[in-house]
Every structure is written in structure tokens, then in C-alpha cells.
Amino acid sequence: MATLFPLHRGRMEYFCLGCGARHGIDQLLYTCPECGGVFLLEDLDFDKLRETPGEGWREIFDARAGEKRAFLRGIFRFYEITAPVLESEDIICLGEGNTPIVEASPALQQRLGGQRMAYKNDGQNPSASFKDRGMACAYSYLKALIRKHKWDSVLTICASTGDTSAAAALYSAYVGGAIRTVVLLPQGKVTPQQLAQPLGSGAVVMEIPGVFDDCMKVVEHLADNYRVALLNSKNAWRILGQESYAFEVAQWYDWDMAGKCVFVPIGNAGNVTAIMGGFLKLHRLGIINELPRVFGVQSHHADPVYRYYNESDPTKRTYQPVKVTPSVAQAAMIGNPVSFPRVKHFVDQYTAIGGRDAFQVLQVTEQAIMEAMLLANRHGHIADTQGGECLAGLMTAMDQKLISKDELAVLDATAHMLKFIGFQEMYFQNNFPPEYGVSPDPAMTNAPLPVLSMQDKQSLTPEEFTLKAAETVASRLGVERKR
Ligand SMILES: N[C@@H](CCOP(=O)(O)O)C(=O)O
User: Fold this and answer.
1) 27-45 pLDDT per residue, tens
2) Can you give the pTM of this predicted structure?
3) Ligand 1 contact via 163 beta carbon (within 6 Å)
4) In which family does this protein belong, per the annotation (predicted)?
């Protein structure tokens, strides 16, 4: 019974956060035709889910952990609270979600003065970032529309700092058929690894001089005026898929969120929106009894959300986009997050239940981000620069006494470290362009050590070469000979 599909079918609608207008999901909408506001998707029958007690839902979701069928695997094991309007035949699962939570080693915990922490490695998703969670849902919905309307051609489009484009191109390549994808990237501001991803998936890659915010404006104009399907998190289906991060954190800790804090970097703000929205859904259904505290983290080079919430008097807060400067947390280098209205919407609900401290935003320096990432990785983690940003945020929270040692901090490593490996290289080789404001601590750098020369290789016999190389390694490391 527990794994039956579906246990609940919903009636979903777009709901505008600007004017409250509601629209049917039969058409692709990103912003409200009436006021231009952003949407969330709501299941009008969500409260019917309360007929099953929280304990019942916990059992159902736990029972699906070993599920093999695509439509109940990955993010879709939470089908009823995600997108309960999709048909099983439309659901795409490329193995997204279910990413590991890895607790800090005792040595790292000690370095943090005993603070409990863990990373959730969302870089272990198929395209190596959390965006796959959202794309699985957005593409499943698109597939449903294509089937229903018998469309023979759909052009999907997104602006990206590198992760969204990789995910969009991957899911598009998998679905194929009517779908073609184009991605718009800020020229020179996406890492070589991230640029290689959509190219390899066969997407059309276009580069625009400027930063992400410039690309986003072009994509928004195209979505408003041309027949294209926008795949950024402005597309509310993306948000639904990304809620699975919250569901998985809760499930991993046996649905007990007491004493847990979640740290998440804020860029375009889709992820922090989804995480708060996800926890609120679980709370509404009694699946969790407490909300974890959420700490958003931003670099001082791209911090519009921090600036907004840094004003303690809510009546004096005014939102101002910022002009970004280069950031190692390049995925979050965004000065005008499209989901800002969604953040406000959920922060109000979140703090109404969890109190003022349930949501806070921290600002960290570029130097702190780099050093936190290196510290984490020297202790066996695979944090990317955004994961470093979260750890820098945790350290800031500790310094400011915003968190206690008994609380467990769950940090979002949003992408795989290998996507951002160039920043580690710049740190190790001390060649960061000055705009980043990062200078290496020699104790944190590393470099390969050459052993013997090519001339040695050519002049020695293979046996002599092995022996001399082994002796050089042993003597450099001060290893004692066996007696
Ligand atoms: N960091 C993002 C920026 C776009 O965010 P989205 O969630 O709105 O698609 C990226 O990887 O492109």
C-alpha cells in the first residue's frame, strides 16, 4: 500500500505573489500576466493530505526509500507533496536527489570548537548540482504539456552561472524529441567545467558580455515575447522539485528537526525559497513538529538579501539590487535574485511559526569562503565554493553567538567541488585577480612535488630509476628504512 502510485491527486494552480491572481497550469507561465509578479504553485487539495496523520506520511516516504520505479524514486518519492498532477509516464528520474549527508570528522568538529555540523553533498546529483532536483520536476511537467498539446517543437531557455545550464542541457538531452535547449551564459564567468557540460549535452550555448543578471534580463524578455520555455527558478515547477532537499534533510534525521540549522547560499534565491517552502509543507502536515532554523549566506560581493534583512526594523527594510563584483562563490554571484519576493513570502510564514531567529542572513568575505572550503576539504569533504560559503557562514554564526554547540548545522554543498576547481588552483598558485580580494595563507596551499627529472628517466635503467625515485620519495618524507 505504502508505495502505490498515486496516493493523492491534487489540483494545482499558479498563485501570484504580487496580486494574488490564480491561473491554471494548462499553460506555461512564469510571471503573472496581470501584474508581472512571480508565482508559486499550490495544490488546492493540499489540506486533504492531513487526513493521513504525519506518522502515516513518514511511513509512506520511508517505505519508498528502496523504490526502483522512476515515478516514485529520487525527488518523486515525495510525489504527493511535490507535483501530484503528473502522470507516471511523464516523470523523469535521472537519479537526482537522495544525496548523502556527511557529518564532520572529529578533527574538523574540534577545529570548530566542538560545533556539530554536516554537509549535504548536492554535488552528487547527476549534473553535479542541486539544480537537477528542480529540472526533474520542470521537465516532467513540460513532457506532460508536450504530450497533452501534441507540441512538435519546444525551445527551452535559461540564463546561468553554470549549474542551471548544465542541468537544463542534461535533462533536455535525455528527454529529446520535441525539446531543444539554449543556454545563455555570462562570457568568461562560468568555469571551464561548467561550460563543458551543456556543450557536451548538445545544447546551443550562447555567451553574453556581462554578468548573470544581464543574461537573466535577456531570458526574461525572450520568455515574455517569444515562444520559449524558461527553465530558471522563475519557473515555479523548478521550486517544487527543489523542495526535496528539505524533505530529504528531515527524512535523514528521522523527521526530527529539533536543534537543527540549515545553512544555504543565496544566489537567485530559488533554493532558499524551496527549502523554506518544503519545511513549511512538512510542518503543515505534522510530518515534522518543529521547523529547523534557516541561515542564508551571501558573499560581501553579492549580498542584496543580506542587506535587506540586515535592517532589523521590518518597517524600514527596502530591497535594492546590488552591482556584483567577482566572487569565488560564482554560482551565487547575483545582484538581483528573481525569487526575492518568494523569500519574503516564506520568511514571513517561517518566522511566524519559528520565531524571529528562525530565518537569518549572514554575510561572509571572499577570503573566508575560500579558506572555509579548503578547511572542509582537508577534512575529507567535497565542498564547492558555495559549500565553503556555508561553512564561512557557520563560523560567522558561531562568532556572533547565533548558534549553540548543541545545535546541528547542516550545510548545503550545492555543487561538486570539481566544477570550481579553478578557484582552488588560483589560491594555491597565488594568482587571484585583485578584484576577488583573496590572498593565500601559505599553510593552506598545496602543490605537486616533482621527483627526478626527464633526464634521469632517460639516462637510468628502469630498475635504477625506480630505486632512485623511491629513495628520493623516502628521503623527502623522512621515512625510515625497514630493518
Ligand atoms: N546559480 C544559478 C543561477 C540561476 O539560478 P536559477 O536557480 O534561477 O536557475 C545557475 O547555476 O545558473
Assistant:
1) 999 999 999 999 999 999 9
2) 0.97
3) yes
4) Belongs to the threonine synthase family.
